[in-house]
Design a protein that fits this description.
2 copies of one chain form a homodimer.
Chain A (H helix, E strand, L loop, with lengths): L1 H23 L2 H7 L2 H4 L5 H28 L5 H17 L7 E2 L2 H13 L2 H20 L11 H18 L1 H5 L9 H11 L5 H20 L9 H11 L1 H20 L24 E3 L2 E3 L1 H8 L2 H20 L7 H16 L7 E2 L1 H9 L6 H21 L4 H15 L2 H9 L2 H16 L2 H21 L3 E8 L2 E8 L8 H14 L5 E4 L8 H14 L5 E4 L3 H10 L7 E2 L4 H5 L7
Parallel strand pairs in A: 6-7, 7-8, 8-9
Antiparallel strand pairs in A: 1-4, 2-3, 5-6
Chain lengths: 585, 585
Amino acid sequence: MTVLNQDAVNKATLRKTRQCLQKTCTVETLKKRIPIIDWLPKYKTEYFIQDVIAGITVALTAIPQGIAYAVIAGLPPEYGLYASLTAGLVYVFFGSCHNVTVGPTAIVATMTGKYVADYSADFAVLTAFLSGIFIFVMGILNLGFLVEFISMPVISGFTTAAALQIAASQLKAYFGLNGTSGSYFLESIQNFVTHINSAKLWEAVLSSATVIMLVLLKKMGHGCKRTDGFVKQMRWFLSLSRNAIVVIIGMIIAYILKVTLHTEPVLLIGDIGSGLPKFGVPPFSTVVGNQTYNFREMVEVLGVQSAVIPVIAILETIAIAKAFAVGGRIDATQEMIAVGLCNIFGSFGQSMPITGSFTRTALNHVSGVKTPAGGLTNVLILFVALTSLTSAFYYIPKASLAGLIITAMFFMIDYEMFGRLWRNGMKDFVLMLVTMLISLFVGLEYGIIAGIVLEALSLLYYVARPSLEVNRMQYEKGDVMVLTLCENMSYCAAEHLRKKIMDTSAISNNIPIIIDGTSLRRVDYTVTYNLMSIIKDLDETHHILLMNFSVELKKLCLNIDLGLESKFVYAASPKELTEALPKEV
Amino acid sequence: MTVLNQDAVNKATLRKTRQCLQKTCTVETLKKRIPIIDWLPKYKTEYFIQDVIAGITVALTAIPQGIAYAVIAGLPPEYGLYASLTAGLVYVFFGSCHNVTVGPTAIVATMTGKYVADYSADFAVLTAFLSGIFIFVMGILNLGFLVEFISMPVISGFTTAAALQIAASQLKAYFGLNGTSGSYFLESIQNFVTHINSAKLWEAVLSSATVIMLVLLKKMGHGCKRTDGFVKQMRWFLSLSRNAIVVIIGMIIAYILKVTLHTEPVLLIGDIGSGLPKFGVPPFSTVVGNQTYNFREMVEVLGVQSAVIPVIAILETIAIAKAFAVGGRIDATQEMIAVGLCNIFGSFGQSMPITGSFTRTALNHVSGVKTPAGGLTNVLILFVALTSLTSAFYYIPKASLAGLIITAMFFMIDYEMFGRLWRNGMKDFVLMLVTMLISLFVGLEYGIIAGIVLEALSLLYYVARPSLEVNRMQYEKGDVMVLTLCENMSYCAAEHLRKKIMDTSAISNNIPIIIDGTSLRRVDYTVTYNLMSIIKDLDETHHILLMNFSVELKKLCLNIDLGLESKFVYAASPKELTEALPKEV
């Protein structure tokens, strides 16, 4: 009998495996995993113009942002363009969400920046490679659900801290101060305070003008759409291109001053490495100063961040895809596979770690992109920029970029959420605050880890203290104490349940106790055992009944103690039971 | 207004603090924290004889067990007696549970053994001191509830592994093998296999005879009570004293052989350090071989175990107190304070870590102990043993102790539970198995940590996937889709809820959707926000209503989006709502 059963189980397993393999190798799966196979044959000519317009708009932001984020990471400016180039191309093939745009982002750049400052650019490229592997494997293993354990208060605390830290690191460039920009919030603030006397007027004027222009241009676009009349359409386009506009204006001013007056009143980005990135194997060993680092030593240097960066990257991508996918329906697995591959391939082309970019995705969306082909235009413009425009980029003032970054950070903070969290009960607000403070003052990676762990622990605490209601019911046929188990019970609630039953029995004055398990759907061994043993203990002195335990739960209970079958009763309400109960025990 | 409120809050806080302080300094609290103040004045002369009888019975087991557990820990035998001496005395003053007996236990001894084998006895004493501090602080901070996160399957897997490991470590002494006894299960088994040829006949005969005698003596006591007639009373007493009896018989045989035939056919315990332990400050620095260890280095050597041993100690004490306290009502805080102080004071008298002992507590209970004064008799007998009997202990055969320990371990395993766990669903069984295997093959401390973490993660997974029921209800007035939220929702379930609502809307064919929140009691910001944003997204295409959300939950939801107030409806059943609903949207 057992052998036969085992045989049947084996056969079923074989069949399942075969079905699973068949399912993995269909055209459908191929289309799902390499989406370009799906959308390219269906491509229509009318999509072309829309994709091109969207691509141009995105590129006008991708170039200044890419340079700015390379600056945040402490990398040479061209790295920011490299990062959008290869990754953008790979996403065209593997991306499942047509408006998502990948590239360097502020948070990931600032987390990478620490290694670049302390070691070298090679560490940023290796981080991209390792993050890619991590994200790809998480995607293959379908582990995207893990990011569900990062709640909105934790995300909010983390992004606020990141925004503040990034903004603080730009204070040096904003005012043209001496000293370092710092990889930590406190470092940057300290540098600002100690070097405030070295502030330069023209830097401050240019960066403040950049901020004001950006805010005005953003406002100018309000209520305008791509499909409006010419004036509104122009306003819409200027508003969307505001990042490029302020940088170009800064460049032109710097160029004119240089050519006409032969002076450089503000600091410029300077020479940008021209041409395409060097393609080759990512740096699995490197030399910093006099010291050679092999692969193992490089990974040791990266430490805990090498796991946090990919998680942040997954989080950003999935959040963005969800926000812009039609009806919020996304294939998280495919998004992770795509972003993983973008990082892996990117690292072969000197890319820093990349992920989905909120700003550029939103731009892509409002520009009316139709297919991932829009990304191709973006990549082509980046290609032109890298090969022909780097000499023009020489004139980008650092203060313009600082103004650009600080404005972006100002808009990244979700101010409304603070109020809502405050009103929604202290727990979520405190969680946000703790995550933010640890992120700011200890480190971004520690902040988010602390937030996740604290919230999981507080969740476990709630689970360990499920609602149990005790009521004394007065009926004509006699009183009963009713202990209602309102929620599922887990092992960590076993002791709580035990105490509650003991307390109820202590105040029951010998009237019958009914334990109402109508809402119970799941209990584990520990709870069942505890429940049965306490009922057995109290059986001699109290009259206890277990009401409306489902057949399955009853079976579990009787597995522990077969002598208590008579305790299980079924009724629409405790009142019904009083009819059959003795008045006193 | 706000200032006034703040003032009121401050006053309330002050009042609370004062009340709290007053509460802390009453005679009641003193009685609770130093229970001897409570029970000693009420002591009656008729308690005396019962306490003395119980004390003698417990001592007859405490002495052979103490020596055996010192042997398990690799310590000189007298350390096992030292451990029961000071700790026993301290428990008389601070213990809240009159039948709990503290002293060395098998599991804690085997966990301590590793340090003794690799370093020296000083590490065992320092472990006692640190564990004491840890337990005491946990008690003061009321953190006893943390042990509720160790479920029965995990405890079962852990104790089974400990029992197997301890039994395996005794195989060497059982058969008189060469080699080492090993601090790990595999080491012990390997030693057994490689040295099986060196087994000695007389050792094996004596240890097997010990096991058989113990089992027979245990059976002899079945159904006999202290209050029975003389014959049954004698059977009862012999059965309870079986540990002492088998050791004494072994001693007598060894003594006779030595005196008459001048041979030692079996290995003996040998010289036992006579007299009381040296009282003094615990070893905060020590010398092992040529190396001096300072306090920090010693703590580094102890590592993760120095946190696991006290947790195990707390677990054993609370579990035992619960099992033997009247009606299971215990003061876990006081028990932790007491066991903490026992370890701290004990470490000033060369004690290894101690905790509540299940065997001896059960013995104490069935011997009819009335007050913690019973422990005093036990301590006096240990005192006599240490000062006068150590020369007799010379003749204790190691094989007798091995038989004693292996028998105790055989009875420590809860065989019934395996079957019950198996029948209760695979999850609990697998958890037990994983805990057991990691405990056996990696280390006891890693096993229990892995068990706790795995179970907490699986619990979080369940919490992230709460039951959501989707039903299509057909009423005369029109059909509705009802999505019932059966359980509380936490942030990690937000995505699950979102998907479920999306799926429901996809299959709803434009009939109204009712989200039934009757059972909801608690949601957090993440869930609320997700729910509100999806309802807003679907508002244009679907008719969605939120039924029976409590006033509080509704307030939280409207905090996020005030425009959705009309979505909240209240009704006894979805049917009522259909009356007012449009047929199609």
